[in-house]
Each structure stands twice: as C-alpha cells, then as structure tokens.
Design brief:
The chain is an alpha/beta fold and 396 residues long. It has two domains: 15-238, Thiolase/Chalcone synthase (Peroxisomal Thiolase, Chain A, domain 1, 3-Layer(aba) Sandwich); 245-372, Peroxisomal Thiolase, Chain A, domain 1 (3-Layer(aba) Sandwich). Helices cover 29% and strands 17% of the residues. The chain is built from ten helices and nine strands. The chain has helices spanning 30-38, 67-71, 81-94, 120-132, 151-160, 175-188, 205-213, 260-275, 293-305, 327-339, and strands spanning 15-23, 109-115, 166-170, 194-201, 227-235, 245-254, 282-286, 349-355, 360-368. Strands 3-2-4-5-1-6-9-8-7 form a nine-stranded mixed beta sheet, with helices on both faces. A hairpin with a 4-residue loop joins strand 8 (349-355) and strand 9. Helix 8 (260-275) packs across helix 9. The chain is globular and about 65 Å long.
Length: 396
C-alpha cells in the first residue's frame, strides 16, 4: 500500500491565494457560486426587453443585480455595469455581511483587474450620442469617466481606500491569468504586500452583437455570461489568512501559426516544467470552454497531455456561459470551490488554461493547500478601513 507524499514547504516568496469572491450567474456571493457549480445548475435565462433586440434568446446573467439597490444611490446614477459588478465583488471579498472590513489591507495593497474592452455599452451609447444629437459635442459628459478602461479598478481602490499599485489588463479570455501574472510579478518585486486580483465582464446588447458578428462561419451565436471574480493574493511568508492555493507558475503564449492546440500544449508543458511538476501529477484541469474552434482545440490538447480524470474533476465552465474576460478567474474559483469538498485535493497540482480568438494563450499551475502548509506571517500590518470620504463608485 502506498501513501501520498506530503508536498514540500513553500518558499516564503511564493504567491498564495487566501480568499476569493464571485458575482456570477449563480448569484451575488461565493457560496452561491460554489453551490450552483457543484450542483451543475443551468444559468441561462431570457434577458428581457430592457436590452432590446438581441442575436440570442438567452444569456447567463447575474440574478437580482440592481446597481442602486446593491451600492446605494450616491455615484451610481450613470455607473456602467462592469464597474458595478467589480465593486459588488470587492465588497464581498473585503467586507463581512455587515459591511465591516474583514480582510486586512495596508497602504501597499493594490488592485489589478482583467477586462476585455471595458464597458462596451457605455462606449457605444456615448458614440451614438455624438452622431445622433444636434451637435457632435452634445453628449452626456458624466459618462466619460466610466468609459475609461481603468475605471472599474480605480473605483474599487477608491471605494476601499486601497493605495497600492492599480492596474487594468485587457486580454480577452486570458485576462484573468494575465492579471494574476502581473500581480505575482509585483509581489515578487516588493511593490505591493497584497493584491486584489481578478477579472470582470458585463452583459450588454453591444457586447452581444459584437460577439455575434465575430462568430466563425458555421458556429452558433454564443451563449454569453457575465460577472466578476476576485482573489486575494499574498506572499506565503507574510500571508495573514490561511492559504487555499499556491501559484507555482504562469505561462503565456501567442498563437501565430493558427494552431491553438499546439500553442496550448507548449504553454502547459512549459508551465509544468517551471512548477517542477509532471502531467501525471495533475489532479484537475479547468479549460476555458470557449465556444470556438480554439476552445475545442484547447480541450483536445489537455486531453492528450493529462490523465483523463483531471478533465472531469471540476464541472464545465460552459454552465456559466461565455463569460469572456471573467472566465479565467471563474475557472480558478471553480477549482477552489471543488477542492473545498475534496479532502484528497490538498497538496495536489491543478491547471487552469485559457485561449482567446485573437491568439492569446495562458496556463497557470496551482498547488491546492491545506492551511498548515503555509508558514505563519512574519509581520502583522495594521488593517485599514474603507475610505469614509470616498462616495460609492467614486471616479478614479
């Protein structure tokens, strides 16, 4: 009889995930996400008449998402849905049910958010005003700040008084992994002590029609989803909360040969080598489930590389619809929520991969952890509280 070998202790500089929150088609909380995913519940609904004509009769929307009801009336009258999704997710990550700060932060706590192109609905409506109003400059100037790519990340920092590095990364379905890699690098350079890192995507009529126009001949219009996933990332040596997973390696590639399967294979092999792991050790692999030829090639490449059970250990991300920029962070959270009920997952290796139609490819190698694996914090930074002078959704 063989017994599992305990994983080696983590070097103190290893980035670890110590918390997460999700606003998803399963609901407004992490628990709703975990329960819905484990139940493999369907999330597609009819968007309703408020969105106008759409190319698809269904979408995977966040249920009960009322911006003013969730964030209050101050600063939300013209707020775009992408920013609101991010702010609600950040509230769920940092605060308890009573709105009190639960996760400690300090003056070097930063934010890095992955997106596609910002709020497409806000941008297209603004441009429409310029063309259809009496004069080109007769536009709603109050919407200009919400049209900037970095608004959601900046508004999150202002809302919670976070003064560390603040960055937005645009990379389609790979955005979540690009953001995680950015945060990992800055933590390693000592530029930040903690990062709120994740990605977000909104559903809108503009997004639906743009995605419909980009569909390859013969493919159906995609079932779109939306939401925001955020993680708390800290170095293992100074982590202030028990860790859920260690980020061992992140690799990215660009498919320049129109062969996404080969790009995924190369990316996964390089990431595993950097992590000091083998394909046979992978307990779970979570592909992006993109409804494209690249997504199908991604899954085929993983099936050829990894043990067959690895691809069925976590429910398919297709349950959430095509969540675009939010996808990769949701994949990590699906892995964490599945491991939560699998005691044998502790110490095991897991993969998250992503592909985008523009050729971007990414792979992250994680080690799922029991809390005792992480060394105790060597310092105890003084927690901060949300900025009392910043209005809800204040502009960055």
């Amino acid at each position: 009889m063989t017994t599992a070998t305990a994983p080696p202790a983590l070097p103190p500089e290893t980035p670890v995930i110590t918390g997460w929150s999700a606003v998803s088609p399963y609901g407004l909380t992490s628990r709703a996400f975990a329960d819905g995913l484990r139940a493999r519940a369907r999330t597609a609904t009819e968007p309703g008449e408020a969105y106008g004509p759409l190319p698809s009769a269904e979408a995977c929307l966040v249920p009960g998402f009322d911006i003013k009801g969730l964030l209050g009336p101050t600063g939300t009258a013209k707020m775009d849905r992408l920013t609101a999704l991010t702010l609600v997710a950040s509230d769920g990550l940092l605060n308890d049910a009573g709105g009190r700060r639960e996760v400690p932060t300090d003056e070097r706590t930063g934010v890095v958010l992955g997106i596609s192109m910002g709020s497409l609905e806000n941008v297209t409506n603004f441009l429409k005003q310029s063309y259809t109003n009496a004069l080109p400059f007769h536009v709603d100037a109050g919407r200009i700040p919400f049209g900037s790519l970095n608004h959601a990340a900046g508004a999150t920092a202002i809302r919670h008084g976070l003064t560390g590095p603040n960055t937005t990364v645009a990379g389609g379905r790979v955005s979540g992994l690009l953001a995680l890699n950015y945060a990992r690098r800055l933590l390693g350079q000592g530029r930040a002590t903690t990062y709120l890192v994740g990605s977000a995507e909104e559903f809108s009529a503009a997004h639906a029609w743009i995605e419909h126009a980009a569909v390859a001949p013969g493919d159906p219009s995609p079932l779109l989803g939306e939401g925001c996933g955020l993680l708390v990332l800290e170095p293992a040596g100074t982590a202030r909360r028990p860790a859920l997973a260690a980020v061992l390696a992140i690799e990215t590639r660009v498919d320049i040969d129109d062969d996404p399967g080969a790009a995924v294979t190369t990316c996964v092999r390089r990431a595993l080598a950097r992590a000091g792991a083998t394909a046979e050790e992978v307990w779970a692999a979570v592909p992006s489930a993109a409804p494209t030829a690249a997504g199908r090639a991604e899954r085929a490449a993983l099936a050829a590389l990894l043990p067959a059970p690895a691809l069925t250990a976590v429910p398919s991300m297709a349950l959430l619809g095509d969540t675009s920029a939010a996808a990769a962070t949701f994949q990590i959270q699906a892995l964490l929520s599945t491991a939560e009920t699998e005691p044998a997952a502790a110490g095991r290796t897991a993969l998250v991969t992503a592909v985008d139609r523009d050729g971007a490819v990414g792979c992250a190698v994680l080690r799922l952890l029991a809390p005792a694996t992480v060394p105790a914090a060597t310092t105890t930074p003084k927690p901060t509280t949300p900025n009392p002078t910043a209005p809800n959704g204040a502009d960055a």
